[in-house]
Amino acid sequence: MTARSRLTRRLADIVCLPSSQVSPQERWVVADVLDEIMRHAAPELRMRIARRLAEQAEAPPGLLRRLALDTYEVAEPILQSARALTDFDLMEIAAKGETRHRMAIARREHVSEVVSAALVASGSTSEILALLANPGAKLASQTVDRLLQMAADELALTHGLIKRAEMRPAQAMALFWECGHGERRALLERFAVGRAILQDAAEDVFPLAASETPRDELIGRALNYIERRQRNRAAAENSPFGSLEGAIEEAARTGLSPELVDEMARLANIQRSLLERMLADFGGEPLAVLTKATGLSRGHLMSLLQTAGRGDPAPEQARYVFDTLSVDKAQTVLRYWNWSLTRPVA
After folding, report:
1. Domain stop point among 67, 85, 103
2. 266-302, pLDDT tens digit by residue?
3. Residue percentage of the chain with pLDDT more than 70
4. Are 169 and 335 a contacting pair, CB within 8 Å?
5. Domain range spanning residue 66?
6. Does 257 reside within a domain?
7. What is the mean pLDDT of residues 28-52?
8. Where among 60, 85, 110 does a domain terminate?
9. What one-character-per-residue DSSP string does 157-217 give?
10. Cross-referenced Pfam families, in alphabetical order (predicted)?
């Protein structure tokens, strides 16, 4: 055994002592000397010390950071299990380390919201997928929003996002447009819920809001989301087609002119841009949500799909959504989509 190896082991023994046997000042002094030796030690020696320090709750933080930013073979035990690493340490390692360093952090037993945000900011798709698959990782709402933006270009992220407990209905409904058929079905099954609890709570608010002058626009938008009726009755009374069904039947005969699209959006009480997105969507699920939410028949759904040029396999997927989604749940989904276009930007 060389003098370097023997001294290194002795110093490691000291820094690993419990606080009852060594003062903080003594530990720091020993750690400084050990840190200087580690700068020039062979990889095998650094690996041995890293394995020992990874198990110590009171390991010197500066020495831990150095070893955690070492080659992955040295850093691995510390990245995987060292409890003495702080969130700031892990964020620095995520920014400066290599892919394998970030993968190890993403798989730690506990990953805080701030560390998760750092991994998402600097990580590749494979690293982010490892993070999403980790039940011990926590995601802040802002991080989920960032991942939603990334999912538009990295479809693999949708699989991991759908399973996350942090996902909120508004985020899920935004993610819907970036998903394939299977993921859309999973999102609807989990997030398409009824609004009975809201409707019961607001039952006596509707007449009160209607009697107020001037109208409270904020409460008006909230009640529009809550109310049971989806269609615009006033628009139907003034429409040359008499109803939403009439407009769809006219579109089947003459095609989807801009005027007809505008009229259908008015009758369905949604933004024209939302209807245009539904008509242009690659799948039939959005139109199935629309027809179910507005009380249209299955036949009108098929007619609307054909008019929009949606061929197989869209009708099969659309029929499934139409047949399994209740009117109330379909309205919840439709109003989330419409709400995202009408609510003021924060």
Report:
1. 85
2. 999 999 999 999 999 988 999 999 999 999 999 999 9
3. 95
4. no
5. 1-85
6. yes
7. 80
8. 85
9. HHHHHHT-TT--HHHHHHHGGG--HHHHHHHHHHH----HHHHHHTTTHHHHHHH-SS--H
10. DUF2336
Q: Which residues of 243-276 are buried (b: 16+ CB within 10 A; e: fewer)?
A: ebbbbbbbbeeeebeeebbebbbbbbbbbbebbe
* β-strand partners of 137: 111
| Tokens of residue 331, six digits | 């309205």
Phi, psi (rounded to 5 degrees) for 108: -60, 155
Residue 37 lies in a domain: yes
* Bridge partners of residue 111, in order along the sequence: 137
User: Does residue 125 sit within a domain?
Assistant: no
Distances from the Cα of 234 to the Cα of 85, 237, 243, angstroms: 63, 5, 10
Residue 69 within a domain: yes
Q: Which of 71, 66, 1 is nearest to 43 (CA)?
A: 71
Please answer whether residues 76 and 54 qualify as being in contact, where contact means their C-beta atoms are separated by less than 8 angstroms. Answer: no
What pLDDT is stored for residue 342 in this prediction? 63
Which tokens sit at 327? 């009117």
Using alpha carbons, list the distances in angstroms from residue 242 to 231, 238, 247, 287, 301: 12, 7, 8, 21, 18
Q: What's the domain count of the chain?
A: 2
Peptide bond into 60 cis (omega under 30): no
